[in-house]
Amino acid sequence: MNPRDSGTSNADWMARSLRSVWHPCTQMQQHESVPLIPISHGRGAWLYDPEGRRYLDAISSWWVNLFGHANPRINAALKDQLDRLEHAMLAGFTHAPVVELSERLSALTGGVLGHCFYASDGASAVEIALKMSFHAWRNAGQTDKQEFVCLQGSYHGETIGALAVTDVPLFREAYGPLLRPAHVVMSPDARQALPGESAADVARRAANALESLLQAREGHIAALIVEPLIQCATGMAMHDPLYLQLARTLCDRYGVHLIADEIAVGCGRTGTFFACEQVDIWPDFVCLSKGISGGYLPLSLVMTSEAVYQAFYDTDVRRGFLHSHSYTGNPLACRAALATLDIFECDDVLNRNRERAQRLGSLLAPLAHHPQVRHVRQRGMVWACDVVLDHAASAASFPRRFFTAALEHELLLRPIGNTVYLMPPYILDDEELALLAIRMQTVLAQVMHA
Ligand SMILES: *Cc1c(COP(=O)(O)O)cnc(C)c1O
What we know:
single chain; alpha/beta; Aspartate Aminotransferase, domain 2; four-stranded mixed sheet; 38% helix; globular; binds pyridoxal-5'-phosphate
């Protein structure tokens, strides 16, 4: 949509879009009652529609946007890159943006995960990590290690392989027959604490369940995949960092790879650049996507260790990792990622986010005492709570009603079931934080009593 279309009304755009565009994660019929918002431009944390209304992007446009829309610094980097090289294939060729990005990300792991393999979306990164794990064991003569383990409520993407390690019934149900089953083990979700149990106790209980499985299937399991610290898509389920430590130890003990899917929780979202840094462990694979390009261009990657890399290094072509995507390592996307890393460095983003997160938390603290609100929780730049609703009907329509009411208050928010969450870009100033906190509570009160 470009400026010359700004005379067109929202209703016209909606009608045209619904005729020809099949929207993601949507029962299209619901748009008979739920509005579809055309966006003509964005600036900072705000999105604007052609009629001039604005929306605070409090979920970073599906968790991808870190430094606002139309960010001048990322724009400048992309304009420069556009005049140099838009794309070149990455088999047999290389280019500065992909080399520099790999070096800088590797350095952020202290060189532990020094090999970066690229793709374009998160689900592909998960597929790559699963294939690499299996193939690395196979190359090492451990051909029986063919099984994967995921956590209850895990979400790792929606392609066939990624969906097989996803435990969100809504996404899985229809495709069950197509999937190769994975082992699903207890989640360390702290909300499951029994009376007297701490979050760390839940983590220990979940780790015990994991150990039972690893013991029972010893020699057959290739990898455990986890979303470190927050299982996002299932409803911002947060766990004690201890779980990651215990999982790392168990994976080492039973010869299992640990895959950290940091597609949502990476890039500073939880307070450190990688979520795993908070417990001082490194997995065998880290998957990154979403925020890595600042929310500009599709880019994902898998970072792995020297040991995994060496398992493929051979004279035999078939022992190589023969996986590719047409846009692997796209220079524009890598350049956006480099500009994103520059902002992290220049603006001391992780430290400033600590203040931002703290402020957001205190603005929303009163909700902890609300009789219909449970499990107020926060880690870094993710805040969430669960809403108790009286009637099943009211619960079923809650996310849609909340979304619509939030738009009326200039907020872009999409609850997951009865979980309301905020996952804003890392640029909100005090005024925007206050506006977000006040209006979110207004919307909540309005929707709860409807
Ligand atoms: C979004 C997400 C994915 C999938 O990424 P896509 O780019 O949507 O394919 C995988 N894992 C996690 C944890 C995610 O949040």
